[in-house]
Design goal:
236 residues; 13 strands; 5 helices; alpha+beta; 24% helix
Length: 236
């Protein structure tokens, strides 16, 4: 019965089910729904509204943080699973499609204790978390996004799916694995290069993690990758 349901899912997504059910968002019924909902919210927001002329089955590319987090929110509300989290990337490292040549946003940002780049957004996230300050880096997942009347064009908001965890390992360049319970440092893991302050996006760049301060920048090799979960109540 499970295999039958997965086959039906793969047919609906327009491609064969990949190991561990990692999918890349494409311009099919699901992708069209995501883009329509996103563009309705961010209409006329230059660089955020996605007016790319996709053909059927094209991969949805050119992703920045407001687009990625908007897509994530729509997928979580309508499809039971959003963008890959850092933990999911590590747990499913050998099953990620196009890993050799792509960049993919996670569903997360990193905030540091000290002020730095994107300071207004760092303060916004602290406020959403109900914290005045923190003493160690945090990974914050599943933030919502809303249009804003400023140069950036968006801001972060809370969501029903919000999740936050301390990440002391992000105080230095290191390598990471998932030990079955949480992310830990390991010499045999996936490399990550870190900052020391501020707020940064956290993505997978080919075979390593990368942080990036620029919220609206994107590259053509961006992908929207998500992990289908049969049980929509699973914690991300």
């Amino acid at each position: 019965m499970v295999n039958k349901r997965l086959t039906q899912l793969a047919d609906r997504l327009g491609r064969g089910a990949l190991p561990n059910f990692i999918q890349t968002l494409i311009y099919d019924d699901l992708g069209k729904m995501v883009l329509e909902s996103h563009n309705e919210k961010f209409k006329s927001k230059n660089g955020i509204e996605n007016l790319t002329k996709y053909q059927d089955k094209d991969e949805i590319k050119v992703v920045n943080i407001p687009r990625a987090f908007s897509y994530n929110s729509i997928l979580l509300k309508n499809h039971s699973s959003g963008l890959l989290s850092p933990s999911e990337i590590l747990e499913n490292w050998n099953s990620i499609p196009e890993k050799d040549e792509t960049y993919a946003e996670t569903n997360s940002v990193v905030i540091y204790p000290n002020p730095g780049q994107n300071e207004d957004l760092r303060k916004t996230v602290l406020r959403i978390l109900g914290k005045q300050s923190i003493s160690t880096p945090h990974i914050v997942s599943n933030l919502g996004v809303e249009p804003a009347d400023d140069d950036r064009g968006f801001t972060f908001v809370g969501s029903d799916f919000l999740y936050c965890e301390e990440a002391p390992y992000l105080q230095k360049h290191c390598s990471l694995v998932h030990n079955g319970k949480k992310i830990v440092e390991s010499d045999s893991g996936v490399p990550i290069w870190v900052y020391k302050d501020g707020l940064h996006r956290l993505g997978r760049e080919c075979h390593h993690f990368n942080m990036w301060a620029y919220m609206r920048d994107s590259i053509w090799t961006d992908r929207v990758q998500f992990l289908f979960k049969e049980n929509s109540g699973n914690e991300r």
